[in-house]
Each structure stands twice: as C-alpha cells, then as structure tokens.
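re: ur question from earlier - yeah i can do the single chain one, its not a big deal. heres the input i used so u can compare w yours
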Amino acid sequence: MECVIREATVEDCEHIMSLIHEIADFHHLLEDVTINSQVLKADGFGKDPFFKCLLAEQPVEKGCKPARPIGHALYFFGYNVNHGRMVYLENLYVVAEFRGQGVGKQLLSKVAEIALEAGCVEMKFVTMEWNQAAKQIYVHLGAHDTTESEDLHCMVLDRDALQRLQQSGKKKKIAH
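and the output i got, formated as tokens:
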C-alpha cells in the first residue's frame, strides 16, 4: 500500500497518543500507559527532545479527506560501546486494517535510512514473546534475537527502583 511517511510535529501528539493507546491495548498493556499528549509534547518536541517519531498516513483522496495517521515509528539514538552509534526503535505500530500491506516495512525502512545517515551501525528493539508474527517479519528482514544468540536480556529499572538506587548511593556517600 502506498502511504506517506513524514516526521511527526508537535501538532501530531494527540494522534501519536491515540496510536500509543492502540498498541498498548493490542499488547494487553493499556493500564501501563501513564503518559499523555502533553508529556509527548514536552519530551519529543522541546529544546532537547528525547525521541523522534515518524507517522505513516493514508494519502489524501482527491483533496477531500484529510490525511489519516495509520501507523508510527518512535525511536531515539543511543550508543553501543562495542559498535558505536545505534538507533533504538521504541515503538512501531500499524493500525489493524492496514497491517500486512507493507506500511510497517516502509516505516522501518525510513528509520533505517535516518539511522544510516546519522552514522548508526545497528537498530535495536524488542518484541513481545507471544507476537510471533512480528518476530518472523523482523527475522525475515535480517534481525536476530539476541536473547537466544547472545544470552542478552532486556532489563528495566522502573521509577521506584531508580529512586531506591539513587537513595542508596546518597547513603553510601554520607557514610564515607
């Protein structure tokens, strides 16, 4: 399917938030979403943005209908101490009725283009264990599962753990 891929703007935050809610619902994680469009605006479109986002839109039909967001790719740049510059794909989502039509691949291709232009040597992302269809697509595109091949596991320290860690560091400083 032909679609328009473009960089998201601050005006798109409501649409992005809607897509985030859709993917969270798809992954049975809707209750985990704690951000809103105002947080997206501050975090993605402020002075020092934490992320970038691409939107896939259904093309405008003869100027009658406005373009409709049908997917997004939310990503940010990072660094791998073994390989150098990398891009991390935090979120890739295509609206259900447009899946299987190449929209996701177009979004991934554009992120790959941006990454290569920025000097990145790899793209990292995670996928849900139960989402075997997505995993098969990623493997077909050349991705490999480092959980299995390199015994790497994705670890997360949530806000409470971060605060405990910060406090434990302060206590040790005082003790010295």
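Strands lie at 4-7, 52-58, 68-80, 84-94, 122-124. not sure if urs matches, ping me
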